[in-house]
Amino acid sequence: MKPPAEPSAFNGLTVQRVVGDGMNFGGFQKTSLIDYPGNISCVLFLSGCNLVCPYCHNPELVRGDGPVPDYLNEAWVMDFLKTRIGLLDGIVITGGEPTLSRGIFSFSEKVKELGFKIKLDTNGTHPEVIRDLMEKRLIDYCAMDIKTDPMAYSSVFSRKPVADRIIKSIEVLMGSDVPYEFRTTCVKPLFDEEVLKAVLTRIQGARRYVLQQFHFTKLLNPSFFESGNCGFSDEEFQGFQAMASQHVRECMVR
Hints:
By secondary structure, this protein is of the alpha/beta class.
């Protein structure tokens, strides 16, 4: 049974905000070779989010209106993992925004008891949750999205100011010994050279920074991009990567 959720709206979009103590299961992928760097994993999708990124490719998880198999619950996931001991290296917990689910701590403890690694995907709006998961050794890798200049989030992504939370999460990751990466989806008008410079001032010396290409497929808010070409050329990506490589230890284009 899903925990109760409180619908909210921003920029005309309805999103689901999880309240309660459980895990709001939204989907499951049994095998992935690409979601956890260097590891074979399964992927658990949690429903509910507190941001409305127009390019989000999991809109049903943001809105909380996607079909969820009746069998998908914590007991089923644990039974599945028990059958994959020795076959999978870990599990990716993604969303939506997984740090909204308070049950993530007890769930992660059970996963770790089975011997699996855990990778967390997060938007960075709950630095206290990220910090606690790291301090309790409940995650082994963290990938945090930096959508644009943190000071500009409130104009597109959130009706509430979140800059301080994003910046704090950056500090938490960079101050931890848990492997991590920062990721930015490069899409106009939310990203350009000036945005990149602003982000790099926040993540100077970071372990890994990933520049992600934008794909106009299933989107949360397609109308946001009706003005024309929103992507960047290979040459532009090379320029972004060269600039970022001067400030971080590793910059990848994905």
